Amino acid sequence: MKSAGSALPTVVFLVLVHALLIESNTDQYVQISRIDLDWSRAIRRVDERFLSVAIDASLIADEKFVNLLNSAKLRTLTKGLNPAFLRFGGTKQDFIKFSPRGRYLHVNNGTVRGNLCEKLKLPEFLEKKLKQEWVQQSKCLLEEELEGKYKKAKFSEYAVDLLYAFANCSGLELIFGLNALLRTRENSWDSGNAELLLKYCESRSYMMSWELGNEPNSYEKKAGIRVDGEQLGQDFVHLHQILQESAIYNSSGLYGPDISQPRDGRKDLLTGFLETGAKVINACTWHHYYVNGRDTSIEDFLDPKVLNTLETKINEVLEVVETVSPGKKLWLGETSSAYGGGAVGLSDTFVAGFMWLDKLGLAAKLGLDVVIRQVLIGSGSYHLVDDNLDPLPDYWLSLLYKRLVGPEVLKAEMFESSGLKKSTRLYLHCTNRKSMLYRQGAVTLFALNLNKHEVRLSLPSHMRNGTVQAFVLESSETGEQGLYSRSVKMNGKVLKMVDEQTLPQLQGQKLPPGEHIKLPAFSFAFYVLIDAQATVCK
Ligand SMILES: *[C@@H]1O[C@H](CO)[C@@H](O)[C@H](O)[C@H]1NC(C)=O
Ligand SMILES: *[C@@H]1O[C@H](CO)[C@@H](O)[C@H](O)[C@H]1NC(C)=O
Ligand SMILES: *[C@@H]1O[C@H](CO)[C@@H](O)[C@H](O)[C@H]1NC(C)=O
Ligand SMILES: *[C@@H]1O[C@H](CO)[C@@H](O)[C@H](O)[C@H]1NC(C)=O
User: Fold this and answer.
1) Which label site among 32, 148, 462, 504 has the fewest CB atoms less than 10 Å from its CB?
2) Using one digit for the tens of pLDDT, what is the confidence trace for 234-265?
3) Is residue 465 in contact with ligand 4, taking CB distance under 6 Å?
4) For the stretch 80-110, what's the b/e string if a residue is b when 16 or more beta carbons lie within 10 angstroms of its beta carbon?
5) Which residue's CA is the closest to the ligand 2 atom numbered 11?
6) Distance (Å) from CA 245 to ligand 2 centroid
7) Residue 12, pLDDT above cutoff 50
């Protein structure tokens, strides 16, 4: 076997056998799905702040915890998500009152800008102490939520200052949720406390927008007060009048009514609200969770049928809005995987990413304008950063989404005979041009593989030629146990912050031209088709 002449046939033979093995493997185990991508036109355009985040109002229940927002690490992580809205709201918002105490952050001329963001850095020892105490505090808050008995709390100027400074220094636009459970004898909204707060914010030139009330459909359960849609709409008109009289809030955003998702087809509160209030809101908001955090399992998180329930709900709400106030923008004003604070051991692990990414894809495709993730930081287990303020898998997913996905929604379809269709899901957008990572005209395909085997996607032949940059996210641990992991690998490397001020470089991996796109078992990925030259993406 010394001469090349005799070795050659053996090599050729081996290559052939090998190729045949791969082929038969392919037939048996690897599913190849033909997909069609259409970037000739955009089917929708969402807000640039489409992916936005929330901080639960319970953070303010004990004011000292608002200091956590001065953490340098948290600031760095949040900056990565802009442009975005920062919603401050949730159940607690209807149980807190602004109570001026003459205690505020000292800033030049009442404006928070420039080096103030530097000055606000939380000393390390204090951050450590607060983080430790926060663990206990979150337990108390969660218990309160489970019992459904909400303690009333007060917040001062200082808390507002820190909240605003956090939003402003991270480049996020603050939406403040006002208390709608302050009511007069006639059961209309008592605006006195809100006016006090507005005056204070105005004196500090804080640019922000507003909401009024959280999940009013359950006021009876939470507080024994019943407010119907029509009355709530009138309350919004009242708030709008107050804002109109303000020199700085006369053009600021007003969003509502933040109802929870329709159950058993009950939509009467929304209809009544829109009839009286639609004219004063900039977008109609509702909340969505797939499952109850205390009554769910990993199977739900991976079940295409559960993921599909969002489509039904979106269409139900869209139908009401289109009927009563056609053209009004619709937002998911608060949303996550599981309600009741999330599902322990699921909502903060790798597997939560399937619900999150599918929600982002579906909501944009069906025409929602903004999706606000519950929560950036806070109690429960659906947060984007953990108790040590380190990023969880859904943070990294959100960061990649921000960088790679632009506001124009394009059409992506999958052709399949195997009937497994819904367990591989894909979405197509223009690539985000604002992040300036790729040339004009690029498109971003993102896909989820809910199967326990690899799936291959076959691009239409005329698209196979171009360069594809892949960002494949998998659990940092192998096997199904890996689904419960609190860390995530991108293209094989565990994602971590470089230091408190620095996010890692998120570099894609160039795929070999002409090959199928390989999506590993239980993974999701973004693929930037750099040479798409899509006119709508230029
Ligand atoms: C504060 O504002 C006043 C007038 O609005 C201005 O004259 C002064 O220069 C400002 N000071 C600082 C430190 O920005
Ligand atoms: C932050 O504050 C400055 C000064 O008031 C303002 O110009 C800027 O628009 C604010 N940024 C955000 C994101 O609200
Ligand atoms: C808001 O008020 C300011 C100051 O009074 C005024 O200059 C501006 O035109 C008003 N804007 C709107 C949209 O009404
Ligand atoms: C693929 O690339 C080759 C070489 O760069 C080029 O000649 C060919 O036209 C391309 N095919 C398509 C369909 O774009």
Assistant:
1) 462
2) 999 999 999 999 999 999 999 999 999 988 76
3) yes
4) bbbebbbbbbbbbbbbbebebeeebbebeee
5) 168
6) 21
7) no
Return the residue matching tokens 């969505």.
288
Q: How far, in Å, from the CA of 165 to the mean position of ligand 4?
A: 52
Do 488 and 396 touch, CB atoms closer than 8 A?
yes
- Could you identify the atom of ligand 2 that is nearest to the CA of residue 172? 13
User: Which is catalytic among the residues 144, 157, 211, 334?
Assistant: 334
- Cα–Cα distance, 522 to 125 (Å, whole number): 40
- Given a cut of 80, whether residue 394 has pLDDT beyond it is yes
Pocket of ligand 3 (CB under 6 A): 247, 250-251
Known catalytic membership, residue 186:
no
Is the Cβ atom of 106 under 6 angstroms away from ligand 4? no
Q: How far is the CA of 49 from the centre of ligand 3 (A)?
A: 25
Mean pLDDT on 171-193: 98
In this prediction, residue 417 carries a pLDDT of: 55
215 labelled catalytic:
yes
Query: What CA–CA distance (Å, rounded) separates 452 from 331?
Result: 33
8 Å CB contact between 237 and 280: yes
Cβ burial of 135 (10 Å; 0-12, 13-18, 19+) is: exposed
Indicate the pLDDT class of residue 421, thresholds 50, 70 and 90: low
* Domains assigned to the chain: 12-38+408-537 (2.60.40.1180), 51-390 (3.20.20.80)
Chain-wide mean pLDDT for the chain?
Answer: 91
Cα(414) to centroid of ligand 4, in Å? 24
Q: Which residues line ligand 1 (CB under 6 A)?
A: 108-109
Looking at residue 113, what is its pLDDT? 54
Q: Where are the beta strands (DSSP E) in 69-179?
A: 85-89, 96-98, 153-155, 173-178
Tell me how far the alpha carbon of residue 462 lies from the centroid of ligand 4, in angstroms. Answer: 8
At 33, give phi and psi (nearest 5°). Answer: -115, 130
Whole-angstrom distance, CA of residue 135 vs CA of residue 85: 26
Per-residue pLDDT tens for 87-103?
999 999 999 999 999 87
In sign, the C-alpha dihedral spanning 323, 324, 325, 329 is negative
Catalytic, out of 127, 173, 215, 474: 215
- What mean pLDDT is predicted for residues 480-509? 97
Output the six-digit token pair for 184: 């007069």
Nearest to 527, CA basis, from 507, 508, 512: 508
User: How far from the centroid of its chain's Cα atoms is residue 188's Cα?
Assistant: 33
What average pLDDT does this structure show over 12-40? 58
E strand residue ranges, 293-404: 330-339, 370-377
